[in-house]
Design a protein that fits this description.
Elements: E1 5-10, H1 14-27, E2 31-36, H2 39-48, E3 53-57, H3 65-74, E4 83-87, H4 92-101, E5 105-108, H5 113-124, H6 136-149, H7 160-170, H8 176-184, H9 187-197, H10 211-218, H11 220-232, H12 241-267, H13 273-282, H14 286-297, H15 306-327, H16 332-340, H17 352-363, H18 372-376, H19 379-384, H20 388-408
Helix pairs in contact: 2-3, 6-14, 6-15, 7-8, 7-11, 8-10, 9-10, 11-13, 12-13, 12-14, 12-17, 12-20, 14-15, 15-16
Bound molecules: fe (ii) ion (2 copies).
One fe (ii) ion is lined by residues 253, 257, 283-284, 361.
């Protein structure tokens, strides 16, 4: 081993290879960067030199990047050499082929220099953490916004059962039979409604064994609330274990906020507490859109850093939520809640509902949350006349509802 640290760039497009060399030279001045014009040349160079990293295009003359990778993996001297694939192929199948061949990282062209350098540094440090971590949350925010601006069309869709339900309620004249018909189209929701109707969430005398009886016991507004809550669970599914957990936590936070907001509305004598339940369910909908974008971007990452995802969700969800709520054709009231629920006094329309959702989030803030006395002295609580004993009682009841819901949902 010569002691000189070297990187091999294999790409038949000379201008791309030169651009990569220029980026690497600037970011890693201690490295020598060699260039191979095709797969065969890359194989010869890699098998006779000691490279710390091979960065390769996929489609190349004489030997493709995936073939080069398999050859390197079969050779004792190069079987562990970090390998990054740079390609225009962004589909999951190609990624799966590269992953099977033993690729260490994968980047889709065109890419941002900052992202490329982060990945290269990660591989050189023998880290498998992929793209994210530490300062990289900033980079993730940058990538997510960039992806969205380039025209992200894969918006989460409003569940069909909710659409049908909204139509039904818009028509004004709703009967239990109409609702039963809509609910029975979705057997998972139908079964859950029956479980809810038989649970301590709704205390009834006898067993409720049909959808019709469940709806009768729950009442129309409550039925609608649970249908939206249950349908929200299926709006977005991810195969990634980290994003799955993020979605699960988000779903429970939304339900918890819905209970808390409804209880606050009851306590403050609002005429329609169920509306607050619905607003609570949907207030963080921007996080769904963000998870959807991260899920899409992450097909090329070896790992996702949950802390980085949490950080961008906190900073971006209000803005992204307002985009989604418009796409779902919800009106200005929903828009205001989704956009301003962490900064209600920035809104031109500081409504009762907006202050309640804001307060529900303060109350449920977890370890970082404020205590009842602190919340009582907030401007929002003063405006609504919310006292600390009321907050304590709301917290207690919310916890009780969530515990019951966890047993049946
Ligand atoms: Fe939020
Ligand atoms: Fe929230």
């Amino acid at each position: 081993m010569s002691g000189v640290k070297k990187i091999l760039v294999a790409d038949d497009e000379i201008h791309i290879a030169m651009a990569i060399k220029a980026i690497l030279k600037k970011a890693l001045p201690g490295y020598v960067v060699d260039h191979a014009k095709n797969g065969v040349e890359a194989w010869k160079m890699a098998s006779t030199n000691d490279y710390q990293l091979v960065i390769s295009d996929w489609n190349m003359p004489k030997k493709n990047g995936d073939e080069l990778l398999s050859d390197l993996r079969k050779n004792n001297d190069t079987s562990k050499t970090p390998f990054m694939m740079l390609t225009a192929r962004g589909d999951r199948d190609s990624y799966a082929v590269a992953a099977k061949a033993g690729v260490d990282d994968y980047l889709i062209k065109p890419f941002k220099a900052a992202e490329f350098v982060l990945k290269v540094k990660g591989l050189l440090e023998h880290e498998t953490a992929g793209l994210l971590g530490g300062v990289q949350a900033e980079c993730l925010a940058d990538l997510v916004v960039d992806r969205f601006k380039k025209g992200y069309t894969n918006l989460p869709v409003l569940p069909k059962v909710v659409k049908n339900f909204n139509k039904l309620f818009e028509s004004g004249d709703v009967t239990i039979e109409d609702i039963v018909k809509v609910v029975e189209l979705d057997s998972a929701i139908a079964l859950k409604l029956i479980s809810i109707a038989n649970s301590p969430l709704v205390r009834g005398a006898s067993d409720c064994l049909s959808v019709e009886r469940a709806i009768t016991r729950l009442g129309l507004p409550e039925t609608k609330n649970y249908i939206v809550a249950l349908a929200n669970k299926g709006v977005l599914v991810s195969e990634n274990i980290i994003l799955k957990k993020v979605l699960e936590d988000l779903w429970w936070h939304s339900l918890e906020t819905a209970y808390c907001a409804k209880l606050l509305a009851i306590m403050l004598n609002h005429s329609n507490p169920d509306k607050l339940f619905l607003l609570g369910l949907l207030h963080d909908v921007g996080k769904l859109l963000l998870v959807s974008i991260v899920d899409d971007l992450s097909i090329t990452w070896s790992e996702i850093d949950k802390a980085a995802v949490d950080e961008i969700m906190d900073s971006l969800h209000a803005d992204f939520g307002s985009v989604l709520i418009r796409a779902w054709n919800f009106g200005d009231e929903f828009y205001d809640i989704v956009h301003f629920h962490h900064s209600p006094f920035d809104s031109e329309n500081i409504s009762f509902e907006l202050l309640v959702i804001y307060l529900a989030n303060l109350i449920l803030g977890g370890d970082d949350g404020k205590d009842a006395v602190e919340i009582t002295s907030s401007q929002a609580a003063i405006r609504l006349g919310l006292k600390s004993d009321m907050i304590m009682s709301v917290i207690e009841k919310t916890n009780e509802y969530v515990a019951s819901a966890r047993r049946v949902l």
